């Protein structure tokens, strides 16, 4: 599945309403794989960060089971930073579920985040 055309979106009461909202939701499904192709500033990193948090929260037994590939080291660092920030601040439903799994499986993500 290719997700594209992310550039046109509207912010509405703190939530992103997009023409491709159904595709974005499908990309968060833990039992599917996907590729994201979109222009700069379209929300790819946010989507991938949410996907990683979702996978940590419900789909993997070890964080090492997750693979996210980007084209630049800068993008990878940004994605890693956002995942860590979401976990440290328990931001959103997916981060909270990931932290629950962290405790359940004794991953110690916040102590070992350099492995992310």
What do these coordinates show?
The chain has about 120 residues and is mainly alpha-helical. It has one domain (about 1-115). It has helices at about 20-25, 45-60, 75-90, 90-105, and strands at about 1-5, 10, 15, 35. The strands form 2 sheets. A two-stranded parallel sheet has the order 1-4. The chain has a two-stranded antiparallel sheet with strand order 2-3. A hairpin with a 2-residue loop joins strand 2 and strand 3. The radius of gyration is 14 Å and the shape is globular. The relative contact order is 0.14.
Summarize the structure.
The chain has helices at residues 21-27, 44-58, 73-89, 92-105, and strands at residues 2-3, 10-12, 15-17, 35-36. It is mostly helical.
Q: Low-confidence parts lasting 5 or more residues at pLDDT below 50?
A: 1-15
Q: What's the N-to-C terminus distance? A: 25 Å
Strand adjacency order, main sheet = 1-4
Largest sheet: 2 strands, parallel
**Which percent range fits the helix content?**
40-55%
Number of strands: 4
Key words describing this protein structure:
about 120 residues, two-stranded antiparallel sheet, 4 helices, disordered N terminus
Give a topology summary:
Elements (H helix, E strand, L loop, with lengths): L1 E2 L6 E3 L2 E3 L3 H7 L7 E2 L7 H15 L14 H17 L2 H14 L11
Parallel strand pairs: 1-4
Antiparallel strand pairs: 2-3
Helix pairs in contact: 2-3, 2-4, 3-4
